TrEMBL record:
Name of the protein described by the UniProt record: Amino acid transporter transmembrane domain-containing protein
Domain Amino acid transporter transmembrane as annotated: residue spans: 31-427
Keyword Transmembrane part of the UniProt annotation: yes
Entry keywords, A to Z: Membrane, Transmembrane, Transmembrane helix
Main location: membrane
Gene Ontology cellular-component terms listed: membrane
Family, as annotated: Belongs to the amino acid/polyamine transporter 2 family.
Annotated localization: Membrane
Topology relative to the membrane: Multi-pass membrane protein
């Protein structure tokens, strides 16, 4: 009898701590195992990033680019763990904005909440852009690119409108293996060519491969850095998943499995593609091995591109949905308000993503802009602040504790540097692209998105 009472008590405590409650008369959202959480994390991270890193290598070189992939990967893994630990220490945290509320109250919550929405709407835009590029490839540009982007948006909305992470779990399995296989085919294919697909077909050419580049501008270097950083920086999307896990304490295990595989794959794939393509890496890199391989790879990877955009849109929509209906019976009951709020949020945010990807239709620029504007403060500065909030007394400890404490202040400074320098670099490159005609007007039918990025 005592054991039964303890179980009941524990469930009551758990319900007080969690956003989604357990009960007989409510929709149960907490059904995700740590294995499925790991696959969801994999699909969130291993998505558009792997298609943009080889392009960034040209500005940093193989050595600088390789160390950048490793360094940012380790930092983003660490901040993912910091965020998860903070969430599991503080009741009622569903998103990074809820955690910001613990730090600085309502004002900081609104600022971070806006950053969160903007970040994942931009990510959704990059995912929609990837899908539209694939549709363009299949059709040999048989229709206006804007129409392909619209069709891609509709497909993504239909996939993202599924309510629970558990229900879209099978999509994440298919999506991950789809994009992984597509990129793997490209990596193998580029090594079989005598010259890059986009290089001059005859005569001598400069590959543009450097271990250490002889020179690079601040603008190019910061854009490349922001691109590599953002490839694994979307860890704030992990937090809503914790709220739907059966056992949130298994979060760290899922993160380590995810990030180990992602970083090993990023490093291997990016270095091989850059070594064989140099400055002739396509943008996205999935088009680097020639037209035939490009069609095959996009055909195999299409599911992965759709699921990536679907997850980004789902994460942003779930934040808004919970924010609107939290502490209301409509959050976990199948009412008209429940469904109208959910579907309206998904469609509304998708429409914004559609407009953004038409305004900035070059893949690597959209990725880098997301990293510098949104993820620098949200994935570097804020996690460092979260750690300082829970471990402020470390500054009173021994030398090692003080160094650890100061390291997190250094992380805040690093995040602000990427925010300022990265944003300047990307915006300048977008301005230059419009001035040179590389980007046409907004809602232009020209296929700007698949152009060579270097």
């Amino acid at each position: 009898m005592g054991d039964a009472e303890d179980i009941i008590y524990d469930k009551e405590i758990e319900n007080e701590f969690e956003v989604f409650k357990k009960g007989e008369d409510v929709v149960d959202f907490r059904t995700v195992s740590w294995q499925k959480a790991s696959i969801i994390f994999l699909k969130v991270i291993f998505a558009t990033g792997v298609l943009s890193i080889p392009t960034a290598m040209f500005s940093l070189g193989a050595v600088g680019g390789g160390f950048s992939v490793i360094g940012w990967g380790l930092l983003n893994t660490y901040t993912a763990i910091v965020q998860g630990n903070f969430r599991n220490r503080h009741a009622g945290c569903h998103s990074i904005a809820d955690m910001a509320n613990v730090l600085g109250g309502k004002v900081l919550r609104e600022v971070v909440g806006l950053l969160f929405i903007v970040a994942y709407v931009l990510c959704t835009g990059s995912g929609i852009l990837g899908v539209s590029i694939a549709l363009n490839v299949f059709s040999t540009h048989g229709a206006c690119t804007v129409w392909f982007t619209f069709v891609a948006t509709v497909i993504v909305v239909l996939a993202a409108s599924v309510r629970k992470f558990h229900q879209i779990g099978w999509l994440t399995y298919a999506g991950f293996f789809s994009i992984y296989a597509a990129v793997f085919i490209v990596v193998i294919a580029v090594t079989t060519r005598t010259r890059p697909a986009t290089a001059p077909p005859t005569g001598d050419y400069d590959l543009g491969w450097f271990a250490v580049p002889p020179s690079t501008t601040f603008v190019d270097g910061m854009t490349a850095t922001a691109t590599i950083f953002v490839s694994s920086a979307g860890t704030s999307a992990f937090l809503p998943v914790i709220s739907e896990m059966r056992n949130p304490k298994e979060y760290n295990k899922a993160v380590y499995w995810c990030m180990a595989l992602v970083q090993a794959s990023y490093l291997t794939f990016a270095l091989v593609v850059y070594r064989w393509c140099g400055q002739y890496v396509a943008n996205p890199s999935i088009g680097s091995a020639g037209h035939t391989v490009k069609i095959v790879s996009y055909a195999i990877g299409l599911v992965g591109l759709i699921v990536s955009a679907c997850l980004y849109l789902h994460v942003a929509s779930k934040y808004v949905f919970v924010r609107i209906l939290r502490d209301s019976r409509h959050l976990q009951h199948n009412t008209v308000i429940h469904w109208a709020t959910w579907l309206g949020t998904v469609i509304g945010l998708a429409a914004v993503a559609f407009i953004i990807c038409e305004a900035v239709p070059i893949f690597s620029f959209l990725i880098a802009l997301t990293g510098s504007v949104c993820f620098a403060p949200m994935a570097i500065c804020l996690p460092a602040w979260l750690w300082l909030y829970d471990h402020w007394d470390y500054w009173k400890g021994n030398v090692l504790f003080k160094a650890y404490w100061l390291m997190h202040w250094g992380m805040i400074a690093l995040g602000l540097f990427i925010l300022g320098g990265g944003t300047y670099g990307v915006v300048q490159q977008i301005i230059d692209a419009y001035a040179s005609g590389l980007i046409g007007g907004a809602f232009d039918c020209a296929d700007n998105s698949g152009s060579v990025g270097t």
